[in-house]
């Protein structure tokens, strides 16, 4: 009898890391550029760059688990997978510390004016007033979204002496009117409008900053650009964008007083490995007849 086939459909993943997660379970692990079809495939490991459709599922009669190699599962038709008798898992939590650390780095950069002052010195100017640094202790951080990452950001900010307001927890518009920095940590639901839309941005206190390390679609970047260009808000730091990478003519590239990083908040050498080991362990549990960790959908 041939070994069950585990397919890694994630260009960033390593077959070796998946095998490490599988442990003693005997399975054939294959890397694939696209979702395969045919019998024998018992597990799919899919990243957010690999959308999974019901047609794919129909072509995989032996499928027992779809393991997302990401915290989110919006690229997976969860109900369709479970209706066909398979599990769905995620790797939620694999980069909580990394995203929280990156968020705080961006918050500190904005409040202390590090990037702007660096650019000014390199351009031959030596004047702290180019971006007068603000005091961190006592500054107010609004955390929108209080899942694991939002909580981790709040803990770090509190340790620095910042006052933290959260949503949910109080009215969003009231929070925005009070904060020095608002940081987004909410999921993006398909078809849902941005959480920080034009109306919400209009409630930000003058001179506030916006940080987004969540998903590009939770922030109205057009409205953000207008607020930045008008000078009503002091700056922004964006690790995620509606279109990634942004095309050459994307206005976000020219937003004033804005820090851009290339969807890097999740990354560390450890976090680059963890999703594939965890996904492999989820597959191992299912093949051994056990419930896997981080279940999103049950058969």
UniProtKB/TrEMBL annotation:
GO molecular function ontology, one term from the record: NAD binding
Quote any Pfam family the record assigns: 2-Hacid_dh_C
Reply yes or no: does the keyword NAD apply: yes
Q: Which InterPro entries has this protein been placed in? A: D-2-hydroxyacid_DH, D-isomer_2_OHA_DH_cat_dom, D-isomer_DH_CS, D-isomer_DH_NAD-bd, NAD(P)-bd_dom_sf
- This protein's source sits in the domain of life called Bacteria
What residue stretches are annotated with the D-isomer specific 2-hydroxyacid dehydrogenase catalytic domain? 37-296
Query: Sorted alphabetically, which keywords does the UniProt record give?
Result: NAD, Oxidoreductase
The residues covered by the D-isomer specific 2-hydroxyacid dehydrogenase NAD-binding domain are 104-265
Q: Which family does it belong to?
A: Belongs to the D-isomer specific 2-hydroxyacid dehydrogenase family.
Q: Spell out the protein name for this chain.
A: D-3-phosphoglycerate dehydrogenase
Q: Which organism is it from?
A: Cryptosporangium aurantiacum
Q: Give the organism's phylogenetic lineage.
A: Bacteria, Bacillati, Actinomycetota, Actinomycetes, Cryptosporangiales
């Amino acid at each position: 009898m041939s070994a069950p086939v585990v397919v890694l459909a994630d260009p960033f993943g390593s077959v070796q890391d998946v095998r490490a997660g599988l442990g003693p379970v005997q399975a054939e692990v294959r890397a694939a550029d696209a979702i395969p079809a045919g019998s024998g495939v018992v597990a799919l490991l899919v990243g957010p760059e690999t959308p999974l459709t019901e047609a794919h599922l129909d072509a995989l009669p032996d499928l027992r688990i779809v393991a997302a190699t990401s915290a989110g599962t919006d690229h997976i038709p969860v109900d369709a997978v479970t209706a066909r008798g398979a599990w769905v898992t995620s790797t939620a939590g694999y980069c909580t510390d990394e995203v929280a650390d990156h968020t705080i780095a961006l918050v500190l950069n904005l409040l202390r004016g590090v990037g702007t002052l660096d650019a000014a010195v390199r351009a031959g100017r030596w004047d702290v007033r180019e971006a007068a640094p603000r005091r961190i202790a006592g500054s107010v951080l609004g955390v929108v979204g209080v899942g694991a990452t939002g909580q981790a950001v709040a803990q770090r900010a509190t340790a620095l002496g910042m006052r933290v307001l959260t949503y949910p927890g109080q009215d969003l518009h009231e929070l925005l009117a009070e904060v020095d920095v608002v940081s987004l940590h909410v999921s993006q639901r398909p078809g849902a409008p941005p959480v920080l839309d034009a109306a919400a941005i209009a409630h930000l206190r003058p001179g506030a900053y916006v940080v987004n390390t969540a998903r590009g679609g939770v922030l109205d970047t057009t409205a953000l650009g207008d607020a930045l260009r008008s000078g009503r808000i002091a700056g922004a730091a964006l690790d995620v964008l509606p279109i990634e990478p942004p095309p050459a003519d994307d206005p976000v590239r020219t937003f004033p007083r804005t820090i851009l990083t290339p969807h890097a908040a999740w990354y560390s050498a450890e976090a680059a490995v963890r999703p594939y080991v965890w996904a492999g362990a989820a597959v191992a549990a299912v093949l051994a007849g056990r419930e896997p960790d981080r279940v999103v959908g049950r058969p």
